[in-house]
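Section 5.1 Outputs to date
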Amino acid sequence: MEFQKVLETRRTVRKYSAGVTREQMEELLRAAQEAPSWKNSQTGRYYCVLSEEMVDKIRVECLPDAGNAGKSEHAALIITTFVHDRAGFQKDGSADNELGNGWGCYDLGLQNENLILKATDLGLSTLIMGLREADRLREILHIPETETIVSVIAVGKAAEEPIRPHRKPIEEIAKFF
């Protein structure tokens, strides 16, 4: 798909008819790996949940209060994390600037954007969920304490076509000097 079309057709989808294969998931992860990162630190980590049984467990136990449990039915789930205290830090452990671990989160966002754009390119859809039970995810998926859990991304075939939302005009989001 042409890049501009990928940008314009990417949508958040809240209803899925099917998840993805391991091969498709690996293709998404390869796209994520191409993103830049602070000093090439590559601290993003992905916990990919493909089995329907495990997806249901995560939906019920880790997404209930967020209202997203029903929105991720029939989709695969990707739990995104980053290894903290690396991106934005010196070898001695001191932060390079006031953002500190913000750089790890920033880098993960760049990776996730690549991932969701690649999903669109493959005819798949995504939903990024920031409201989640991080402690329960950590327990179920054995995520180390050295990683910060950021989001859960549902990915799969859309069950319905979403409407393109309004975008603010450039004048409202940018200042030119």
